[in-house]
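During the second half of the funding period, the structural biology subgroup turned its attention to how the target accommodates small molecules. The most pressing case was pyridoxal-5'-phosphate, which had performed well in the primary screen but for which no bound structure existed. We therefore specified the complex as follows and requested a full 3D prediction, including the ligand pose.
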Amino acid sequence: MLESIFREIILEHYRKPRNKNPLENPTVTVSMRNPMCGDEIDLMLVIEDEQIRAIGFTGQGCSISQASVSMMTQGVSGRSVDEALDLEKRFVALMRDEEGASEDRKLGDLRALQGVAKLPVRIKCALLGWNALDEAIKAHRKSPTGAMGEKLEFEDLTELPAGFDPTTHREDLP
Amino acid sequence: MRSGWLFRPPTRSIYHPNSVNPSETASRTHQPALAGQPESPLNMAVVRAEFPILDQQVHGHRLVYLDSAASSQRPAVVIRTIAEYYAKDHANVHRGAYELSVRATRRYEAARGKVARFLGAGRADEVVFTRSTTESINLVSMAWGRANLGPGDVVVVSEMEHHSNLVPWQMVCEMTGAEIKAIGVTDDQCLDLDHFDALLSEGNVRLVATGHVSNAVGTIHPVEEIARRAHGVGALYLIDGAQSAPQLPIDVRAIGGDVDTFSGHKACGPTGIGALWARRDLLESMPPYQGGGEMIEEVRIERSTYAPVPHKFEAGTPNIAGAIGLGAAVDFLQSFGLETIHAHEKRIARLVLERLADEFKAITLYGPAPEVARGGVVAFTLADIHPHDLATILDHEGVAIRAGHHCCQPLMRRLGVAATARASFYLYNAEDDLEALVGGLHRAQELFGI
Ligand SMILES: Cc1ncc(COP(=O)(O)O)c(C=O)c1O
């Protein structure tokens, strides 16, 4: 089970993250942190003509969050905004363990993270970078010319394991 | 020393269907002590048999609970006491003219007496029941702080405080214009007492608030000395005893501070109950913290007079069952003796520190050396494995540890790390738990190719 999570490729991205460098002139910068566990990233993008021309990040965190954001930057770099959102949807499906998601070839290396879907408390680690990307694209859509230099700050406060809905959860009395 | 009723075997039916009898637990968990080390003064088989929750498997392994600094587990006697109270004696306290309420009130107040004795307080009316350490500190910062602090005044905390003993002081300083200063930390995570002296000599210090034992790295601070120096400049001294009351003999009068506080849930008691001890004259001089029922003497529309201490600080229906459960918890701890528990903690902390240092080249251990006063908390990082990854991997070996900033972000900044892994050992932890931790850390290294 753990072998399916701490796979070589994940550790490789953790130890040698791709695109882990700040961008000079990003059109949008999003800082996303999880105050509970201390994981944090600053994600920077240059979006022009609806294309992600450049992407970089800084920050620190566990192997799952860092590998996921590293792979994410690889996956969306040079793509259109719509393609990035499509990849995000596919990745979220993978984390939800949805049918077929683990065979989705469009996810590429990201499929290595499928084991995380079996660890509800760690799913939010894998989603940290994607949440940042999502906020970045939202901000871009609001102001397509870009909010140069201004950093948008977010906190990921989800504490419940993914998939847990307290309004439908039932507990048996002893 | 041990009274019989405390050690009735856990009632099987309601609380823990799978509980085994103590002799089974003994044969399964007993391990010889490490060579050359003195045995623990505690009989582990007896202790563990009291904790039904420990008798379970997690991810196919024996549960090894190493997060008692966050919250300890409950002995069966506490669970039973609470259930029996609700089953037999419950009514609201301090107001009934009938048998049940009299019984509930007597049990609630008897619990106050137990906690007072546990803390070495001279009198039961110096003990206020609160929700927790956090609420106790907020009570003092709001009740005392708002009435006594003003611009130019200084509150001294330390760089290694739990956020619970930092944020309430920040809040009251913001309200009153007082200033907050922090005692620095030495390279081995002790309080820098020279720096403390320097802060005191800068003047206007009205209150000093520090922990007794660090929850993040285990340091035991010299509270008697801090009290002496604080009083030397006429300042009050509040001790955050959240980590000390569970594992050290506490004698608030011998320590000489003005306020001490702890949480039930870290000391084998229920969640949602804590105790605040303060010198009686200080308690009397403080205005109430919350208003409501139970804390009044006479109420008119315009104004009211307040009940005498400690009731002045217990507005509303209190956590009666929690207090009674806490009374059972301190009885339980005292049945072993806090000296004995402390000796056990000291011994196991030394074993853990030595074993981890021996076994893992790539480990970084935080906190003072075993020779220096320290409690049962061991904080570490291992190679480049993130503490959260360590916690996940250990969890799959049945070992529960904590990873993160341990509510001590300023200390983490001082240590230059975002997070550490923390294993905290309590009276029910022994060498077999240490070995499970070691095994889990080896597994982590293997997974990370180290
Ligand atoms: C040193 C210290 N102070 C205060 C607290 C707060 O305790 P509680 O959350 O029970 O109020 C803790 C527990 O986390 C602690 O370890």
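Two results from this model are relevant to the next phase. Residues 22-75+337-448 of chain B form a domain with the Aspartate Aminotransferase, domain 1 fold (CATH 3.90.1150.10). The radius of gyration of chain B is 22 Å.
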